[in-house]
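Give me the fold.
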Amino acid sequence: MKIVPVVISIIRKNNKYLITKRVVFDKEDKRFYPLVWNIPGGGIEFGETPENALIRETWEELGVELKNIIQIPKIFSEVRDHWQGLFIVFVSELSDSNAKIILNSEASEFGWFTLNEAKKLKLMPKTIEMLEEADKI
């Protein structure tokens, strides 16, 4: 059994949120395949602060930098098989609002969605709850 701290990068622009279509799945996530939408993020590496992990993960997955980073004051938890993720969620904006999103191999596409539009997507667990918390900020 494993507990993993994970950062989640909710990027907001014009009251829409950046969501990616995931194509690479860890073993604990295989049941969600194929082509499930999610918010970018990933595990915190040893010695990293959550904020540094957020900046690194966002750069690795999207090729963009962030500004106005705010941590949501709620930790989300999800158990999948013998894995438990503790999700530390941040809301931010692109440093350059015209920055080009460059996806890595984990996602096939991205889109900007309102909260109501996101509710119609096939999403990873906890995504709507995280977006609802972000929508309050």
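Residues 2-135 form a domain with the Nucleoside Triphosphate Pyrophosphohydrolase fold (CATH 3.90.79.10).
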